[in-house]
Design brief:
Blueprint lengths: L6 E2 L2 E2 L1 H18 L2 H11 L11 H24 L14 H21 L4 H21 L6 H8 L1
Antiparallel strand pairs: 1-2
């Protein structure tokens, strides 16, 4: 009988199962990271307003300020070696980043209100401001999952 890497007697070895679970977990971590989840929520937020799908661009603009700009900053800081990784795993790195994200979100909210964005988009952003504030406060003491908080927003 031939033996393949990680497979013994037609069954996967322990290492193969753990490796596959780890790979699946990594994929799910990337797919459900906060910027991705929140972007989808923001794109869908104007759906309850009259004029949808014509109002979707308000969701796009909100996603720019709430997700894309802060994520771009994180990726730049990772590339420059100022942050450990794009998930900001080191708790000490989170508070300043969350404050910067909060500034971007508030600027986005002001801009959207100036152009009379649908109420549903503003309400979603206000809820996100509350969530980011709680996440930042808790991060000062404990390591909290930004992924879990983003999923719970849905």
């Amino acid at each position: 009988m031939t033996e393949q890497r990680g497979i013994k007697d037609g069954r996967r070895g322990q290492r193969g199962v753990r490796g596959e679970r780890h790979r699946v977990a990594r994929v799910l971590t990337e797919v459900f990271q906060p910027p991705a989840v929140v972007s989808v929520l923001l794109l869908l937020s104007p759906a309850v307003e009259p004029g949808f799908p014509g109002t979707i661009w308000f969701g796009v603009l909100a996603a720019l300020f709430v997700c894309a700009l802060p994520l771009a900053y994180v990726l730049l800081m990772v590339r420059l070696g100022k942050l450990s990784d794009h998930h900001v795993s080191d708790r000490k790195e989170r508070a300043p980043l969350l404050m910067l994200a909060l500034v971007s979100v508030v600027v986005g909210l002001v801009a959207l209100n100036l152009i009379h964005a649908p109420t549903s988009v503003s309400a979603m952003i206000l809820a996100l401001i509350g969530g980011i504030t709680v996440l930042a406060a808790v991060s000062l003491v404990w390591k909290i999952s930004g992924h879990a908080s983003a999923i719970s927003a849905g």
